[in-house]
Amino acid sequence: MEPEDRLGLYRMMVLIRTYEETILREYHADKKPVFDIGAGLIPGEMHLSAGQEPVAAGVCAHLSADDAVTATHRPHHFAIAHGVDLEKMTAEIFGRVDGLGRGRGGHMHLFDPATHFSCSGIIAEGYPPAVGQALAFQRRGTDRVAVAVTGEGAANQGAFHEALNLAALWKLPVVFVVEDNDWGISVPRSASTCVTSNALRAAGYGIPGHRVEDNSVEAVHAVAGEAVARARAGEGPSLVEVHTLRLSGHFEGDAQGYRSDLEGVPGRDPLPTYEKELLAAGVLDDAAVSSIAAQARDRVEAAVAFAKRSPEPDPATALDFVFAQA
Q: Pfam families from the entry (predicted)?
């Protein structure tokens, strides 16, 4: 890869990590006991994607705002990498009226028509809508693509298989991405899935399947580039599974008593690993590391300040936007 491209991937990973760490800080600000998930500045549950930055950065580097992305209940990294407005997204997470969904959706229900981004709290829910978007792109004769993201546990859902089957049958321009973070909430893949890799399932639908083992952003970038190019060329869908890493629990407050790998997790953090690689290659120096970190902090703190300035929805408007206008 060209140095500038490598630097772009690193910048994106730093921005995502900075955002997640800041949201974590704000999530616990003014919180009551941890079991009271409705209290504090940010209501509801919180699912963070720290450790999974390589997947979003590597995939979305090949996309434009005209392409579509459907993400999971752990959506921030893909939203940021796909260019969703950071201020409006943060306001939505804070439940404020200037948010993407006017504060009605929260962090698991981010919808941005400007970048064709959506996500859902229902696992594998994004696969069928991505197939529909890909069908629309194909019918219009464009080279736009849809990317559908899910976790390895959700690959056992019926929607996953139905989507792959129809996309393969119609040769639709869609890339299916599976984030294998080892734990489908609290169950390892080996206890729930009969194959060693979901990438093997692609063969059952006659499409290419690839697995990236080392959570390397450059490896993801290479494989995703081939899959996106195939889709744009009208050659049909691909399945890409990335063995990634969930640094924290399934949700914030998860005690993770089921995890046997916690002790070694910090040493597998992809961000310092990639930073060291770029420093050794001369793509980065200490001054650039500091500058990129400062720029990310400034941008994220500005988004948080915007969210905090935005008012909370008036309870009297609770039924607004629920029903279609006559």
A: E1_dh
